[in-house]
Amino acid sequence: MSGYRSKGDLSLILLTYVASLEKVDALMPAHVEWVEAAMREGAFLVAGRRNPRTGGVILAHGTATAVEAIAATDPFVTGGVATVEVVAFNASFAQPALGNLLA
What we know:
The protein has helices spanning about 20-40, 65-70, 75-80, 95-100, and strands at about 10-15, 45-50, 55-60, 80-90. It is an alpha+beta fold. β2 (about 45-50) and β3 (about 55-60) form a beta hairpin.
């Protein structure tokens, strides 16, 4: 498999719950709406829960600074039920089917 280098900046958003799942679930509809809006805009590529359910992971397009700004608006973060870490990276390798998504 040949290497693939992303043409744009990529970041992982790592959410960690700091409150009970009851409090997290109370904010879930607003969080899902936030994720869906970012997906429609093309800012997010993949999003889902950690397993076990201790938070979430989102693959996002954008510089760390831009993604941090988006992540700060997550209802889980603004509602105080999760902390966020943004990890910027360059995709050096990817399956060919993912290449166009990461461009």
